[in-house]
């Protein structure tokens, strides 16, 4: 994977024509071409993301994870028929000098971790992030421990899933997050967590940031799987709190307590003020601000429709400094510009030239 060092994250782009490779008739030629064509760009994306993992969660993923690839470049890897997607990601570190706590149907212990967190490019000309909690048959005790961790931390997980538009699939069943691994009808290998699919082209300025955010949000669940499999205590609550602190640093102009008449219906998690408050501008006003600004970032002038950027409603004078939700104090910024502005700058970018 040495080619990855010659590409910067700003240069990474996936075009619609890229998926023509999936149509190569010969499977061996197709696999080799997929590896040489997609892996260098996917590796740059993954290494960029792991750098952010290290900064946000204060862990070094390189110390206890290994890269995983599809199609696998290992000569002795089992053959995968079809090759309808190419992916690169991480799993727990491959080691044969120790057994995991996970057992096989015959009672012996696995040496390889069952959970993969990957970036995928598919034959449907789309990209997404996917977490496979169990890629092979694992014992019920391991599944139960994962389910218990999710259940106990659902109050922190649910808003993180919401702001990143993450979904979970259980054999086409709708199951609440905290119940996703406790359904008696669910085979563990049927469970996946995933981001929305972004249709190509996907570039650094068009969708790639959304995939990075999804990967970062799913990383704590991968880490939980690794810790449990290694027989170590889960650190899921700690990682989720670090994610919460990081997210709030990006949206730090949001009040810790939403205005009472703007709270949504239902019970919101009480200990996630930043994540909860982020959406507490009334939906009608949120829509009105975006429409007034022509669905375009007031700073970089990129739009949701043409450029695929995620748009936020920003307080010109932050709430933390007395700013109100009046229309004249609100402006449309894309996610990237909103981070750059933070709450230290009061510039009204609607009237800013240059």
Folded structure, characterized:
The chain is of the alpha+beta class. Helix content is 33%, strand content 15%. The chain contains nine helices and eleven strands. The strands form three sheets. Strands 2, 3, 4, 5, 6, 7 and 8 form a seven-stranded antiparallel β-sheet that branches. It has a two-stranded antiparallel sheet with strand order 1-9. Strands 10-11 form a two-stranded antiparallel ribbon. Strand 4 and strand 5 form a beta hairpin. Helix 1 packs across helix 4. The radius of gyration is 22 Å and the shape is globular. The N terminus is likely disordered.
Low-confidence stretches: 1-5, 170-174, 253-280
The arrangement of helices and strands along the chain is: EHEEEEHHEEEEHHHHHEEH
Percent in strands: 5-15%
| Number of helices in the DSSP assignment | 9
Kindly, what is the distance between the CA atoms of the first and last residues, rounded to a whole number of angstroms?
A: 41 Å
Portion in helices? 25-40%
Shape assignment: globular
Major sheet summary line: 7 strands, antiparallel
Briefly characterize the structure:
This protein is an alpha+beta fold and 354 residues long.
